[in-house]
Structure formats: C-alpha cells, structure tokens
Amino acid sequence: MFDFFKKEKDDINILQINNPLNGEIIKIEDVPDPVFSQKMIGEGFAVKPIDGKVHSPVDGEIVLLPEGLHAVAIKTVEGIEILIHIGMDTFKLKGDGFISYVKLTDRVKKGDIILEFDIDLINEKIEKKEIPTLITPVVITNPDRLDKIKINYNAKQDEKALEAEIMY
Known about the structure:
single chain; 3-stranded antiparallel sheet; 2 helices
C-alpha cells in the first residue's frame, strides 16, 4: 500500500571518489593519528604517497584550503565533503614545500591537479622526527549522508578508490 515511500534499487545515488594520490591505499584505521583512525572526522581511506601530486578525487568546489596548504576539502554537487590531509603535523611547515593550483570557491573536475608537495622535503622532516608521517587521509567529513561505502584498496591514482551510496 505504501510502496511509493520505498526507494527503488535503480534510484540509489552512487558517489565515486578517485584515489587523489599515487601510492598504496590503506585503511583509515591504520592512520597513526587517532583523530583519523578513530573516524572522529569521518569515513574514508588513506594513501602512502610515492610522489607529490594531488588530484581532485571528485567534481566539486574547493571549500577548505588552509594557509599552510597541507589540506584541501572539496564539496560535491550532492553536498558530500571530502578532506585530503597531506601527512600528519604538516601544518608545521607553514606552506613550505606546498604549491596550490586552486583557491577557495574554485570549481574542479575529477583528475584536476589541485596541490603539489615536495615529497623529499617532507621525508627529510620525517627522518628528523619533525613530522610523524606522510600518510594522507582522504575522508568524507559528513558520513551521516552515507548509506554504505566500499573501498578498493588496489586503486591506482585517478582510479575509483571509494564508492558510496549516498542519501539525499
């Protein structure tokens, strides 16, 4: 009698998030920072980068770009917000070694280069114990909008790494 309230299987909204970095994808629970590993910020995955190019994992708008350029957040047209946080404690570099190709409110397409970082400089800081890790979380910061997610731990850069069913 009330079937019109049920969502048809074909009506499920799927968001695909690409791997924004070249490197190995790991579980968010394995990030050596409890804010990320305990999913206090949201749900997602992390990447152990092997180079310094960061590509947009989705089409959307830049909604966060701290002065230190160590992170970026993108909001999709569906309202899903994705945070890419390069390493841990990289804010301490105050932008040294980071280049942004975007600014706040810029529209980006999936695959666009949005940031670049000097991986050698950051690795030197890690060796000197000034920064703990380069592991980079990629997190959906409004996970309440997600119904179900699936992560592809084998995704290469610019390949589908996370697929989420989202609620409108």
